[in-house]
Structure formats: C-alpha cells, structure tokens
C-alpha cells in the first residue's frame, strides 16, 4: 500500500482545525477544504494548502480525513456532487473522525471500498484541549489492515487508539460514551443546584465528589467552569443533542431501553429552544437555572 505523505482534511471546526494543524506540524503535507474557506486560510502559516472541492482534494493526496458536524454534512462531502468519491483512487485511505451513525460509516466503507480505498471510522474524544495538544482518544472501527495503515495519522492527533472492531463499532462506542457524559453532567448540574437551594455552598458538593470513589477528571474541569460561568465552547449543546439523538436511534433499532438518555436529551432540546445551542454543554445548567429561578454562584 502507498506510504502516507500527503493528507487531505475536510472540516475545520473546533476539532478539525487543530487536528489538521497537528498533521502539518508532524510532517505531513496537508491539503484542506472547508465550507468556509477562510478557515483554510488561517492554517496557511502551517503549510496547509487549499482545495477548491472535496473531489479535487482527493485527487491530490494519499489519504483524506473528515471531521464534520453531522451525517448530512458527511454524506455531502463524501458522496455528494464534487465529493470525495468523485476523486477517489485505489490505494488511498479514508479516515472519518466525525461522530455520525454506524449505518452511514458502513455505507461509506462499501462505497469507497468499491474504488479500492481503505476506510476507517475514528470518532474522537478529548474535546478542544485534546485536539489542540494532540492527545485525543480515538475509537476506531476498521479491518485490521486499514487500521494498521491509519496509525501514523492517529499518532499525529492522539495518544490513545482503541480498535473497537469492524466499521460501525467505533461509532457505537463513541455514542455510548457521549450519552454517559451527558448523564454525568446532568447529575452534577441537578446536584449543585439543589445543594445551593438548600442553603449549602455547591462547592462543597464538588469538593466531596472530587475526593470520593465516584470522582472523575470530567468533574474536575466542568464543575468549576459551571460555577465560574465559563461556558466557552469546547463541545456544543447542538452537537451533544445530535449525538444523543443518534444514540437513541441506535437504541430503538436494537430494542434497548434508554430512559435516562431520552430524558437528558429533552434538557438539551430545551437549551436549544432557548437559543443556547452554540454554547458549551456545561451551559445546560443555565436551562435548569431558568426553570427553578436559582443561579449557581
């Protein structure tokens, strides 16, 4: 198989822009495409070159990576007019870092496999900080040979890669992980609000959580951020709502009851209805605050 020297990157949002930069800084020749071309221009100082269309990008590289918002966006850049499939060539590698559905990732593997392209699904976790520092955790779904080919790309953007199984498995693990995050954040939000309403400093609850057997590094940074009203977006409410929706779609398909995730999804829908969709997921606490008239402080 071809050595991976040139890499295309499509989707330069909070995560993708940092991942593309890390690839360039780790020695890959990077060609990028984004719906908003100004984001490609911002990476020019790292040697990143622009492409006019996804198809043109595919013709210029050994491998291409996508990190886009949702299934519709991925389907468009991969399979739509002027998409990656138009420019795909045998021997290439396609790594999708997006969080979409297992069904779509399997569809992409089949479509690109018919052209002789190896496909790897590789949703990530680690948020903006992990993308910036190149310390993401990658949940890969792929055939063994494709997974092995992708290792140099994974090493450039992350520190831990879990081979979850064939294509589709990585997505299932990622969606379950994000459902767990949403449940954890909801529990912390409700607990701190009630603690404060009952006349106790919510920082005492956070102190106890961080000292106990149910502590999590997640609470170490999200808890203080909520108390300090720091809702700078690392992972948006809109994206978590999307992932919870995909998780529940999968649960319906496989006939698994997920009542807690369904309830938490409605909290995210409330936040979106209040115009908070672009805020960080920690801002969901403000929707609960609005309902009970109690603001964390």
Report the structural category. alpha/beta
Computed over alpha carbons, the radius of gyration is 20 Å
CATH class of the largest domain: Alpha Beta
- CATH-defined fold name of the largest domain: Rossmann fold
Order of helices and strands: EHEHEHEHHEHEEHEHHEHHHHHH
How far the N terminus sits from the C terminus, by CA atoms, comes to 57 Å
- Note the main sheet: 6 strands, parallel
- Strand order in the sheet with the most strands: 3-2-1-4-5-6
* Helix-residue proportion: 40-55%
Poorly predicted parts:
none
Task: Categorize the overall geometry.
Answer: elongated
- The portion of residues forming beta strands comes to 5-15%
CATH architecture of the largest domain: 3-Layer(aba) Sandwich
Number of helices: 15
How would you describe this structure in keywords?
N-(1-d-carboxylethyl)-l-norvaline Dehydrogenase, domain 2; 13% strand; 53% helix; 297 residues; alpha/beta; elongated; 15 helices; 9 strands; Rossmann fold; six-stranded parallel sheet; 2 domains; three-stranded mixed sheet
């Amino acid at each position: 198989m071809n050595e991976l020297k040139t890499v295309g990157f499509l989707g330069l949002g909070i995560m993708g822009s940092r991942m593309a930069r890390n690839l360039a800084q780790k020695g890959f020749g990077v060609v990028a495409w984004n719906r908003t071309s100004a984001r490609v221009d911002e990476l020019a100082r790292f040697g990143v070159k622009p492409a006019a269309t996804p198809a043109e990008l595919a013709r210029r590289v050994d491998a291409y990576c996508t990190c886009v918002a949702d299934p519709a966006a991925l389907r468009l850049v991969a399979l739509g007019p002027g998409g990656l499939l138009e420019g795909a060539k045998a021997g290439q590698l396609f790594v999708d870092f997006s969080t979409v559905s297992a069904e779509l990732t399997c569809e992409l593997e089949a479509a690109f496999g018919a052209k002789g392209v190896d496909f790897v699904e590789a949703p990530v976790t680690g948020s903006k900080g992990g993308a910036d520092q190149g310390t993401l955790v990658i949940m890969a779904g792929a055939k063994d040979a494709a997974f092995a080919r992708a290792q140099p790309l994974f090493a450039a953007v992350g520190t831990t890669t879990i081979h979850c199984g064939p294509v589709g498995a990585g997505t299932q693990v990622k969606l379950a992980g994000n459902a767990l995050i949403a449940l954890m954040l909801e529990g912390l939000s409700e607990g701190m609000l009630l603690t404060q309403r009952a006349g106790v400093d919510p920082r005492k609850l956070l102190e106890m959580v961080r000292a106990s057997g149910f502590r999590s590094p997640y609470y170490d940074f999200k808890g203080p951020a909520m108390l300090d009203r720091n809702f700078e977006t690392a992972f948006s409410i809109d994206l978590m709502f999307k992932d919870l929706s995909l998780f529940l779609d999968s649960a319906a398909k496989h006939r698994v009851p997920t009542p807690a995730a369904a309830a938490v999804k409605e909290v995210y829908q409330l936040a979106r209805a209040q115009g908070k969709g672009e805020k960080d997921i920690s801002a969901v606490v403000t929707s609960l605050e609005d309902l009970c008239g109690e603001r964390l402080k």
